[in-house]
Every structure is written in structure tokens, then in C-alpha cells.
Design goal:
Radius of gyration: 59 Å
Distance between the termini: 200 Å
Helix content: 40-55%
Strand content: 25-35%
Number of strands: 15
């Protein structure tokens, strides 16, 4: 059984080869296939019957870029890597699935947004891109044009079941030597593989089945979470609108209360002023009452004095009347004598 390891370390891809030949275990050295500081997002690996390896990488540069590379066989570490070939740029969201065909053509299934698209790559060179897209969730069987463009064929994605993936997420520790470490193991069962190899493959296939089931379960949960998130966002939007309306009403009420408070303060100041004026008026009234009492006493004294004067006047008037009466009598008598 042949094993192939692909390790992504700090954004640069390093290829490590390991294979078994009969009973002799042989290790090959590492090869750097992308010497840059760009972040490698995802990748996929396949191998043809001649042990030529093909790698697809998606890296984050100015934007997401899809690359393909070919590693020629010929006995490790002989052979070599072809120059990386840019396939496309876009919003790639998943590992490209690579299919190897007998006509030395590679078929890449890439997730772009929520859709799937097929790229073809022949003899280490980019060939064409399909003009048709498919919903990613239903992408289990695809139809696309061949190299000649005259006929159609179907591409099955059963290759995914022959791969075993596990990943260690990027650590936040600055001292970590491998911050983004990902391993991919692909296998090719040979007729002379040992029973241990077959047991390993069965275990790997079982793990892949469990992984696929977990991924399907995760997709369902992600859909449910997305639905709940949308409902939550809608409710948050409604609450924000209600809060904005309530805030506007509160501001209007606060404005009215401020005006009423200012009016109340003015009214209180006016009342205080009126109270001060009333107190002054009360003081003036008290003074006036004192003066009135004094005048009443004087009037009473004058009345008493006047009453005494009236009795004197009456006495004098009486005397005057008496004198006047006697004077009249003598006048009459005198007149009588004069007449005689």
C-alpha cells in the first residue's frame, strides 16, 4: 500500500512522501511545493496509476486563488514538481475534489459560494472551466463536456470516500511552530497489500463513513442554526425598531416634562413673588389698622368733647331765648306807650 502525506505549515505547503515496497519500508525526504507566506485555506490530493501525484491548493492572497501542481513519479525522490498553475480566482469555500481520468485529465470540483463548478486540468496545464453550476448540496453526480467539447460524460464523486481527513485548528499561541497544521492521507489498495494494510483501510473507510455522517449531521445543524440565526436577526430587528420608537416617545415625553417643569418653576417663582407682595400688604394693613384705631380714639374724644359743647350750647341758647323773649315784651310795652 502506498501512503501520501500533505502537511500545511504556516501557509506554505510541504509534501512528505511515504510508501511501502514489499517488506522494505522506505521514507523519502520532504519537498516544498509553495514557498510563500500566503495562508493555505484548503487542498486536495490524488494519484494516477503511474504514481504521479496531483495537488490542488486554495490560498488567500489578494483574493482566493486556486492552484494545481503535478509531481511526476519515477522513484522517489526522483521526478519533480511542475510549476504551479493558477486555475481560477473567486469565493472558494471548500476543498477541491480531484478526479483522475485515463486521458491524463484531472477534474476539479470546487465549491464557489453555495454552488459547485467543475474545472479541468490536463498534463499539468489548466484546460477549461464549466459554464454550468450546480447546487452544492446535490452535487453527487456531474455532467460536463470532454476535452473535445463534442460529447458529455458523468463525473462521480465517490473519490471523497477514499480519503481520510483530520485537522488541527490554528492556535493563538505565538510560540507555536506549526500554527495551521493539516494532514491528508490518500490510499491506493494494491493486490499484494498485507492484511494489516487491509485492516487499516477498513478502519479508515469506517472512519470516513462516520466522518461523512457527522458532516451531514453538522450540515443539518448548520442549516437549523442559520434558520434560528435569521429568526434571531429578524426578532432583533423588530426589537430595535420598537426600541427606536420607544426611545422617540421617551424623548418626546422628556421634552414635554422639561417644558412643564420649566413652567412649574416659573409659576413657583411667580407665587413666591406674590407671597412677598402679600406679606408687604399685610404689614401695610396692620399699620393702617393702627392708624385707624388712633383716629377712632381721637374721634371718640372729639365726640365726647362735642357732647359737652352741645350741652353748653343748649344752655346758652335757652338763656338767649329767655333774654330775647323778655326783650320782646318790653318792646311791645314800649310800643303801646308810644301809640298812646
Amino acid at each position: 500500500m502506498n501512503l501520501f502525506y500533505l502537511t500545511i505549515v504556516k501557509g506554505a505547503a510541504v509534501i512528505k512522501h511515504k510508501y511501502y515496497l514489499l517488506l522494505n519500508k522506505v521514507w523519502s525526504p520532504s519537498y516544498t511545493i509553495t514557498n510563500n507566506n500566503y495562508n493555505t485555506l484548503c487542498y486536495s490530493v490524488t494519484r494516477d496509476k503511474k504514481n504521479n501525484f496531483y495537488v490542488a491548493l486554495i490560498q488567500e492572497r489578494e483574493e482566493q486563488v486556486l492552484f494545481c501542481l503535478k509531481r511526476e513519479a519515477g522513484g522517489w525522490p526522483e521526478g519533480g514538481w511542475h510549476r504551479e498553475q493558477e486555475i481560477g480566482r473567486g469565493n472558494f469555500l471548500s476543498v477541491p475534489v480531484i478526479e483522475h481520468a485515463e486521458d491524463r485529465r484531472l477534474t476539479l470540483l470546487v465549491k464557489e459560494g453555495e454552488e459547485a463548478r467543475i474545472y479541468t486540468w490536463t498534463d499539468g496545464y489548466y484546460n477549461s472551466i464549466s459554464t454550468e453550476t450546480w447546487p452544492w448540496e446535490t452535487a453527487t453526480l456531474f455532467r460536463h463536456r470532454s476535452l473535445s467539447g463534442s460529447e458529455s460524460e458523468y463525473v462521480s464523486l465517490e473519490f471523497v470516500k477514499k480519503s481520510l481527513f483530520w485537522q488541527k485548528k490554528q492556535t493563538d499561541t505565538p510560540a507555536a511552530e506549526a500554527e495551521n497544521v493539516v494532514h491528508v492521507i490518500t490510499e491506493a489498495s494494491e493486490q499484494d497489500s498485507s492484511r494489516s494494510d487491509e485492516a487499516f483501510l477498513k478502519k479508515a473507510f469506517h472512519i470516513m463513513q462516520v466522518k461523512n455522517e457527522l458532516e451531514e449531521n453538522l450540515k443539518r445543524k448548520e442549516k437549523a442554526f442559520a434558520r434560528i440565526s435569521r429568526q434571531y436577526e429578524e426578532q432583533i430587528g423588530v426589537l430595535r425598531m420598537q426600541l427606536a420608537a420607544q426611545t422617540a416617545r421617551n424623548k418626546d415625553i422628556e421634552s414635554k416634562l422639561s417644558k412643564q417643569e420649566a413652567s412649574a418653576l416659573n409659576y413657583a417663582a411667580e407665587l413666591k413673588k406674590k407671597g412677598s407682595e402679600l406679606a408687604e400688604l399685610k404689614k401695610e394693613m396692620e399699620k393702617i389698622k393702627g392708624v385707624v384705631k388712633e383716629r377712632e380714639k381721637e374721634i371718640q374724644a372729639l365726640k365726647t368733647a362735642l357732647a359737652g359743647k352741645e350741652s353748653d350750647i343748649l344752655f346758652l341758647t335757652k338763656q338767649l331765648d329767655e333774654k330775647t323773649g323778655s326783650k320782646g315784651v318790653w318792646h311791645k310795652i314800649s310800643k303801646l306807650f308810644q301809640d298812646k
